[in-house]
């Protein structure tokens, strides 16, 4: 408890928000940041990391690397330390964009931290079919980018997010993105997390899905000193679908923690989740998937699967697929496996003249590929495939 | 089919079958817990100094511990000062044979369906019966001692085999392991002790029967099973309690030690009083059970059928220390009305090529909550570890809940771990199919539930399987529709 209060006190002096932010700060002080014993953060000691990095100061500015941007039609938003940089961005006329005061957000500690210290809230209104690419360039000790996306009734909306941080200095990013998906609409959200060992991040994604709508989240993690993904999908009405697909392909001392939760609130909804992990060297992977089915949510179908391969003696995996079910007329299942590469499969390939390294890469590539099914934007697909190849070969 | 009919017929209109109490004069400690009580219990048992010291140390540690609150169960705070920690049926002197045992007591057992008399010889089960806190009778002792098997009450073992007790007590579940284990270590009053010597295959099933009889009493028994090299034993445990409005506490500890090539099979049918239809009364069952496969090629298998208790908090676990050792956990947990169960297992793989298998079947009905909480941990040097877990839940009624919390922690790349879980209700089509063939709804449900639990039931010893099957039907009675 002592440690937390020092962080919060330190932050307190930097506070300059509006009434909602003040309230969020007070709530945060009351519940405190998660500590080592907190169940949800058991394997990810994020508060102690935050303590070391807490500062709003800029830690050396890199020039915006334009090569990191996708060459794809659509809008490209560049955020520097959570603030939209209009000169670096390319915004289509059809995109409705508002930048304004901070409004309410989720009430878990890190969302509250974001609410309290975000500099601005970017609201993206859809009505627009072209994809929107969001690039976060963060150079600060602590940045709190905050985005809200409203998908209008009957529309389809695609968002791709990417975080770019310097390699030579530690940064902590506490991002927050909230989707409100209207009726009969589709929302696609893709995240590519190829960071470095100086990058610490806590990334919250919230989706509130209305009647007859679908929401897809794809998260691909490749490297990061400590990355925590908090994904929450609220299926608020009947006949909704939530899809979560993820891959964590880690090496070095990377640590990625995927914490996902889907909340079935009303009848006839469907959710599907597939997370795959490949862990090499001294990396740590954490998966915690929760399916929550409320009493009213009869006729729910919810499926979850988590498969992992450990490649090294020093890799560690923690997985906890969790079901909490309060309704009786449901079909829910989860499965999770962990193992190593199949010797027979490697032998089969080697007997056909493929060397061991390539044989392994082939098998792992096939293993990873399944999670990419729902990435519809060509250049993003290509980038992910490239990153997978780079890691495997 | 006819057996299922019979079962339902037999239990229609029956509630908790074992809900009677018998008044025999009891030798009791005053309510509450303090150092004097611990000393009182130890003195009553005429224990050596080292055991008293061990108890006092555990009590000290318990005082500093906090009641765990992470389990998915809710119950009013337990007032540890309003519980009686020692209650023994009064005996003037130690009985030498069954004839000298209080006839009232023997009647109790007959009502329970365990006769300590000769007829037990036919079924070949050796029974150690524990009422309230004290072991009252052990059968077949002579026959077992011919083989060198020690099977007696814990207090007797303390007197007669102090070296063994000293060596193994707390070696698997240390006194300060958790809140309830510490409490048990401080105030445990009796229990069973079982030692199988080298190379002996125990010829009969050993069984302990627990019963809480007196009001306001907590039962704190301790079971210690030691299987030496190349030995085998199958151990059964059953429990009942009278129907009372207030909640009673049961905090037991079971320790199993399996040496090289030893195999221990431990089966429980837990049928503590679950409380009435409105959730009043019932037993709080907070039990620590753990076994260690200490030697290579050893095996420990837990099989449990949990139908009773208002609140269950129980995780029989295996520490797979020896290379090639095997841990198994088979469980059926049934909850009805306002019962809450948070149960599961923990498999810790330490040795090379260790294997574990978990099959857990949860059935919830009424307004009950049923959780599976398990952990599979593969440590760094556990080369070639293998685990398979399956936990299925069956929901009956729209106000009950089923939850799973499986933790899987892997630190070795060669580990192969699989976990799968499903949750569903009994399909309308399944019931329809049965009804079409003239099977009424309630029988159909019993049929389907028995099929659902079959995999675990098959692992139970014969005489237990029949009892367990009846219990299943009884617990779920009236929960259809």
Task: Outline the secondary-structure elements.
The complex is a heterodimer of chains A (393) and B (481).
Chain A: H1 2-12, H2 19-31, H3 46-53, E1 75-80, E2 83-84, E3 96-100, H4 109-117, E4 121-125, E5 132-137, E6 142-143, E7 146-151, E8 156-164, E9 171-181, E10 186-194, E11 199-209, E12 214-223, E13 226-235, E14 241-250, E15 255-264, E16 270-279, E17 284-293, E18 301-310, E19 316-325, E20 331-339, H5 343-351, H6 356-369, H7 378-392
Parallel strand pairs in A: 1-5, 4-7, 5-8, 6-9, 7-9, 8-10, 9-11, 10-12, 11-13, 12-14, 13-15, 14-16, 15-17, 16-18, 17-19, 18-20
Antiparallel strand pairs in A: 1-2, 3-4
Helix pairs in contact in A: 1-3, 2-4, 5-6, 6-7
Chain B: H1 2-11, E1 26-28, H2 35-44, H3 49-64, E2 87-89, H4 103-112, H5 119-123, E3 125-131, E4 134-138, H6 141-146, E5 150-153, H7 154-160, H8 162-168, H9 179-187, E6 190-196, E7 205-211, E8 221-227, E9 232-240, E10 247-250, E11 253-258, E12 263-270, E13 282-293, E14 299-306, E15 311-314, E16 317-320, E17 326-335, E18 340-343, E19 346-349, E20 355-365, E21 369-378, E22 386-396, E23 401-410, E24 416-425, H10 428-436, H11 441-457, H12 462-476
Parallel strand pairs in B: 3-7, 6-8, 7-9, 8-11, 9-12, 10-13, 11-13, 12-14, 13-15, 13-16, 14-17, 15-18, 16-19, 17-20, 18-21, 19-21, 20-22, 21-23, 22-24
Antiparallel strand pairs in B: 1-2, 3-4, 5-6
Helix pairs in contact in B: 1-12, 2-3, 3-9, 7-8, 10-11, 11-12
Largest sheet of chain B: 10 strands, mixed
Pair with the most extensive interface?
A-B, 34 and 34 residues
* Uncertain spans of chain B: 1-5, 7-14, 91-98, 115-124
**Gap between N and C termini of chain B:** 21 Å
Rg calculated over all Cα atoms of chain A: 21 Å
- Average pLDDT of chain B works out at 79
Would you tell me the structural class of the helices and strands of chain B? alpha/beta
Total separate domains of chain B: 1
What number of domains of chain A? 1
Question: What percent of residues of chain B adopt helix (DSSP H or I)?
Answer: 25-40%
For the biggest β-sheet of chain B, the strand order reads 4-3-7-9-12-14-17-20-22-24
The tally of strands of chain A reads 20
């Amino acid at each position: 408890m002592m440690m937390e209060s020092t962080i919060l006190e330190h932050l307190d002096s930097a506070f300059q928000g509006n009434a909602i932010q003040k309230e969020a700060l007070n709530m945060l002080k009351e519940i405190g940041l998660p500590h080592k014993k907190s169940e949800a953060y058991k394997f990810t000691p994020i508060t102690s990391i935050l303590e070391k990095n807490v500062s709003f100061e800029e830690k050396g500015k890199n020039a915006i690397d334009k090569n990191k941007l996708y060459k794809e039609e659509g809008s490209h938003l560049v955020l520097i330390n959570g603030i939209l940089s209009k000169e670096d961005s390319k915004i289509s006329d059809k995109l409705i964009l508002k930048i304004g005061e901070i409004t309410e957000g989720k009430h878990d500690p890190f969302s509250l931290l974001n609410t309290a210290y975000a500099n601005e809230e970017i609201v993206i209104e859809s009505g627009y079919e072209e994809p929107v690419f969001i690039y976060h360039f963060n150079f600060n000790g602590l940045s709190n980018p905050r985005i809200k996306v409203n998908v209008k009734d009957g529309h389809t909306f695609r968002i791709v997010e990417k975080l770019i941080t310097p390699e030579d200095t530690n940064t902590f990013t506490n991002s927050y993105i909230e989707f409100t998906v209207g009726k009969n609409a589709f929302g696609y959200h893709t995240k590519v997390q190829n960071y470095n060992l100086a990058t610490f991040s806590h990334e919250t994604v919230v989706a509130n899905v209305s009647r007859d709508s679908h929401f897809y989240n794809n998260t691909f993690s490749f490297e990061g000193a400590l990355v925590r993904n908090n994904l929450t999908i609220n299926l608020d009405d009947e006949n909704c679908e939530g899809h979560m697909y993820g891959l964590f392909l880690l090496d070095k001392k990377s640590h990625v923690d995927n914490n996902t939760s889907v909340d079935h609130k009303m009848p006839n909804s469907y959710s599907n989740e597939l997370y795959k992990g490949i862990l090499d060297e001294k990396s740590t992977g954490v998966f915690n998937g929760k399916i929550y089915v409320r009493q009213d949510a009869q006729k729910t179908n919810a499926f979850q699967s988590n498969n992992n391969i450990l490649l090294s003696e020093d890799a560690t995996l923690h997985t906890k697929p969790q079901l909490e079910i309060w309704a009786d007329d449901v079909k829910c299942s989860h499965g999770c496996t962990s193992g190593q590469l199949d010797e027979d499969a490697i032998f089969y390939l080697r007997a056909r003249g493929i060397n061991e390294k390539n044989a392994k890469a082939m098998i792992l590539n096939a293993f990873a590929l399944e999670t990419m099914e729902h990435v519809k934007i060509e250049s993003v697909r290509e980038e992910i495939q490239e990153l997978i190849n780079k890691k495997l070969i | 089919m006819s057996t299922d009919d019979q079962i339902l017929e037999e239990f229609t209109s029956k509630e908790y079958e074992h809900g009677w109490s018998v008044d025999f004069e009891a030798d009791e400690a005053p309510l509450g817990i303090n150092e004097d009580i611990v000393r009182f219990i130890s003195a009553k048992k005429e224990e050596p100094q080292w055991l008293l010291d061990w108890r006092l140390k555990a009590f000290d540690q318990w005082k500093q511990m906090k009641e765990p609150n992470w389990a998915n169960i809710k119950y009013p705070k337990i007032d540890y000062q309003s519980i009686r920690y020692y209650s023994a049926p009064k005996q003037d002197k130690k009985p030498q044979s069954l004839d000298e045992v209080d006839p009232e007591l023997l009647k109790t057992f007959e009502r329970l369906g365990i006769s300590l008399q000769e007829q037990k010889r036919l079924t070949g089960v050796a029974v150690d019966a524990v009422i309230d806190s004290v072991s009252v009778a052990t059968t077949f002792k002579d026959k077992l001692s011919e083989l060198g098997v020690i099977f007696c009450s814990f207090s007797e073992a303390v007197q007669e085999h102090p070296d063994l007790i000293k060596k193994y007590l707390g070696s698997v579940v240390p006194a300060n392991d958790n809140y309830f284990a510490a409490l048990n270590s401080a105030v445990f009053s009796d229990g069973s002790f079982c030692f199988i010597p080298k190379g002996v295959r125990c010829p009969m099933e050993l069984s302990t029967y627990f019963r809480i009889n007196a009001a306001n009493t907590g039962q704190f028994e301790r079971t210690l099973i030691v299987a030496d090299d190349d030995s085998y034993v199958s151990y059964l445990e059953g429990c009942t309690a009278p129907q009372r409005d207030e909640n009673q506490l049961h905090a037991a500890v079971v320790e199993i030690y399996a040496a090289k090539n030893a195999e221990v099979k431990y089966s429980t049918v837990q049928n503590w009083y679950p409380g009435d239809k409105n959730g009043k009364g019932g037993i709080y069952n907070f039990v620590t059970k753990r076994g260690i496969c200490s030697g290579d090629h050893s095996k420990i298998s837990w099989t449990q059928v949990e139908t009773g208790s208002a609140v269950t908090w129980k995780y029989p676990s295996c520490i797979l220390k020896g290379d090639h050792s095997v841990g198994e956990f088979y469980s059926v947990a049934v909850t009805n009305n306002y019962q809450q169960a948070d149960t599961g297992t923990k498999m810790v793989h330490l040795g090379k090529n260790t294997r574990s298998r978990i099959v857990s079947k949860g059935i919830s009905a009424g307004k009950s909550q049923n959780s599976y909480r398990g952990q599979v941990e593969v440590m760094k040097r556990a080369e070639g570890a293998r685990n398979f877990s399956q936990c299925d839940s069956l929901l009956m009624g729209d106000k009950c809940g089923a939850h799973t919390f499986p933790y899987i922690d892997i630190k070795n790349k060669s580990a192969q771990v699989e976990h799968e879980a499903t949750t569903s209700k009994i399909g309308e089509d399944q019931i329809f199919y049965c009804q079409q063939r003239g099977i009424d709804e309630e029988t159909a449900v019993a049929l389907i539930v028995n099929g659902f639990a079959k995999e675990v039931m098959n692992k139970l010893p014969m005489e237990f399987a029949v009892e367990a099957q009846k219990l299943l039907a009884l617990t779920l009675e009236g929960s259809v529709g």
